[in-house]
# Entry
Amino acid sequence: MRDLCTPFDKRNIVYSSAVNTAYEQAVYHEYVAPSLHLNTDERKVLTSAQKAQFENDAQMKLETTQMQQAMQSDTVASELAQQKAKQEHDNQQEAQRNIEEAVISQEQDKGEIYE
# Structure
């Protein structure tokens, strides 16, 4: 086969900051976000599907190294911070709604006692 086609030489390409940011966001949405929202069984299914994408261990190790570097980036950190802030906001709204419902039910109970 080598007589027919010379082997492909991989090049190290330096990406622009926009491409790096897009890659970091893709890593967040593909690997980080599912781990926050999926249960253990669903995570195992996702992990096995992701492992099946690689041809060999060397390719998987290279991609894993790149993903780990991307996960330590500012983009992933900001995505996590936004997700955490949104979740805290949702929790606060739920707590406020529960308090308001409790006050309304207490007022209704008081109204029934007076009648």
User: Anything to note?
Assistant: Residues 74-114 form the longest helix (41 residues). The radius of gyration is 25 Å. DSSP finds four helices and no strands in the chain. Helices lie at 17-37, 40-51, 57-71, 74-114.
